[in-house]
Amino acid sequence: MIETPNLTGERIKEYLREGKRFDGRKPNEFREISIETGVSKNAEGSARVKIGKTEVLVGVKMNVSEPYPDSPDKGNLMVTAELIPLSSPRFENGPPKFGAIELGRVIDRGIRESKFIELEKLCIKEGEKVWTVFIDIYSINDDGNLLDAAGIGALAALKNAKIPKYDIKEGKVVYGEWTEKKIPLKKEIPISLTVHKIGENLLVDPTREEEDISETRVTMASSDGIISSMQKGLAVSLNIEEFNNILDLIEKTEREIFKKIEKFLK
Amino acid sequence: MALAHAGIPMKNLVSSVSIGKLDKQLVVDVDKYEEDFEEGEGSTDIPITLTNDGKLTHIQLDGKIKKEQLKEAIELAKETCKKIYDVQKKALKEVGK
Lengths: 266, 97
Known about the structure:
The complex is a heterodimer. By secondary structure, chain A is of the alpha+beta class. Chain A is built from 5 helices and 13 strands. Chain A is elongated. Chain B is an alpha+beta fold. Chain B has a single domain, classed as 2-Layer Sandwich (Ribosomal Protein S5, domain 2). Chain B has helices at 2-5, 32-35, 67-96, and strands at 14-22, 25-28, 43-51, 55-66. A 4-stranded antiparallel sheet of chain B has the order 2-1-3-4. In chain B, strand 1 (14-22) and strand 2 (25-28) form a beta hairpin. Strand 13 of chain A pairs antiparallel with strand 4 (55-66) of chain B, so a sheet runs across the interface.
């Protein structure tokens, strides 16, 4: 396992105290974001998102299945993430570990709690048949901030998706053939963003090295200042003032990022 | 509490409270009925854990809330956790007698 050496960590902190970062960014500045949609022929929707050197692929698949007993008239949502070995020397094959599970959960939460997907419109027959939306996240290259890249990827892939044809008589999905219908989505787009605390400083969009020495982080999905979900990660505690600063920083960043990615989310 | 009672060395005690928002009103200690509240803006559920010196060790949120009101919610959690902390401390002292 290659970890960031202490010396590098100390230097990152030193730089941050002066409001600087190794790559010349300001603490509240994102790297270049690029988004490509429709990258998979077989998926209902897909997107490739790059933030600097970090890259993720997100695919949306749909299937018809039974609804859960507590939501008989609503479609289902499942988000899974795989951190595949080619994307980092730290990831191994095998059952998903903490990082992959957490990534899937945080993205799931951002989308589910904002009610971005209008699941009630994905009901075919109440109590019997509903659409299940699968969002699959794959890391292609990990240079930090997979969380935000995956969040943006999930939004772009959902926007890109078309509902496949469904054969009512046979009760089967006709894969490879699509209707013109899109997945019903709300107008408000819940952008999931993460703020990290390193030493006394807050920053967004960490590189791998910065993420390694991050002491604590807060991920929040919000749309135009309305927060729909939030989760704190890592062990170090925050005082209330720091937390309020995080809220302010996320709000500001959300507006900036929205402007940058808006055209991919039409 | 159980950890403290067992004498496991710890840095500090933490206290947790669940702050809810029913439509537009902030409340503490949400019950099952309140969690499922669906009128107006619906319910927002924010479990918060604080140390007795007011540091956040855990926070999670589901629902819909504006930044300013979330800040209020945290202040409310801070006050409530102080009360809970006193109860926790008192109980531990009694046990130790």
